[in-house]
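Allow me, if you will, to draw on your knowledge of protein folds for a short while. I have a record of one protein: its chain in single-letter code and its fold written as discrete structure tokens. Could you please explain, in whatever detail you think fit, how the structure tokens follow from the sequence? The record follows directly beneath this note:
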Amino acid sequence: MKKLLIICIFFSGIAAHAQTPEDALRTAWFTQNGTARNMAVGGTMGSLGGDITANHVNPAGLGFYKTNELVLSPGFLFNNNKFNFRGTDSTGKKSAFGYGTSGIILAGNKRRKSTWISSAFAISVNQLANYNNRVQYTGFNNYSSFTEKYLEELTRDRADTNAALSNYIFGSSLAFRTFLVDTISGPGGTVAGYQSLVPISQGVKQLYDAQSSGGYNEIAIGTAGNIGDQLYLGISFTIPIIKYTRNLFYSEKDPTADGTNSFSFFEYRETYSSSGAGIGAKLGMIYKPQESLRLGFAFHTPQLIGFTDNIRSSMVANTETYAGLRSESSDALNNGRAGVAKYNMTTPWRMIGSVSYVLREVNDVRMQKGFISADIEYVHYKGARFNATSGDAGDIGLSNYYSMLNETIKDTYRGNVNIRLGGELKFNTIMVRLGTAYYGSPYKDQVLKASRFIGSGGLGYRNKGMFIDLTYSHILNKDVQFPYLLNDKANTFAVQKGSRGSLMLTLGFKI
């Protein structure tokens, strides 16, 4: 994790906010979302078809449509996070509205005397990831401090007092101006280095509280064809639209009543937002070697997304008799403006292989008795890349920074496999569905334990050109959260365990 920190601090003198590998993971490591039917069967949609979610997974599945359809999928999310930070347990809860795949499918008529039996066109929107969450943990730490990253930054740059005052207005300059970090005097009044006023060896109580909102939304425009009711080919062009906002509060406090150690507390606040839009594509095919068996394959190209980030930060510190209570903000040092950074990102590619077995496969889908389906998905997490915008293409500093960042992504993450399994039984107009899924860790370091396990179930009703589906899925999360990253010692982190519940309702109409 040391190399990750070097990236984080290297860029601080060039732009308002440095991108990190974590930003790339936010657009890559997420569980399958879709209609209530799709979520009930664990997110399996690689070879099933006949569901609008196929437009975002394997567009060849649109080729099963013979009639027009309108679909709406509102949902609700329940977050229940549990953290352990240096032996102290904490929780963080946040619920929010969300949505699954919604849109319209227009199916073409059969063509006489042609193997190209039918075709379909769809335009839909899906929320691939919901960012509404709260990460909150606290604990006692006598090993390291948030302020040490400022010491590393100032020492690395050999910053003089003028640089410390003005060159790091979203971080080190705030700490320096509040005397949380101060100079060490050398011979003749020179600056021999910098020191933190936080009594690390004595220990402090640390609190990290970040509330985030927004989502990774995707518009898909797809088309597919049915060749002989045996081969289905499809393609969809995607438009990712991302909005992410995080309000961070971080503090360190002296747990003792010692009024002579020149430290009582400090609090750091940060408001960060990132918005982006881009383009990508998804290609797929489904083949039926025999009536009841379906084999599917899909490939998702990397999405090219242009981002604009904004950041504001502030700090309050009380160093008691040393300098008293002081405060400073980036707004005061930046004429009231937020820091802005613009850049491009390419998301990792992914591919999906799938197999489905349909019980009593007949052309009249109303007569089918159910199915069982499985997907295996590979995501190339380490393939995410950051690049400068065209306006900054000639900036050597930016070019070097993004090269280092991309190398760090390759060293931090790895490609991994996700597995999904689900099935459905039909009882005339009523359907019962169950599913499960497992998402492997994207981290290369085996010390960082992460996974997501899903169990889901739902009911469906279909009759007279109308259908309604209701699903609940329960996601067990395992991850790690770093309050800060240091380069000169091992980094401490919180172990995250907990769950996310998702309730999804889908209404559909044949039109």
In short: The chain has one domain: 2-143+218-242+280-310+347-510. The radius of gyration is 26 Å. The first strand starts at residue 69 and ends at 72.
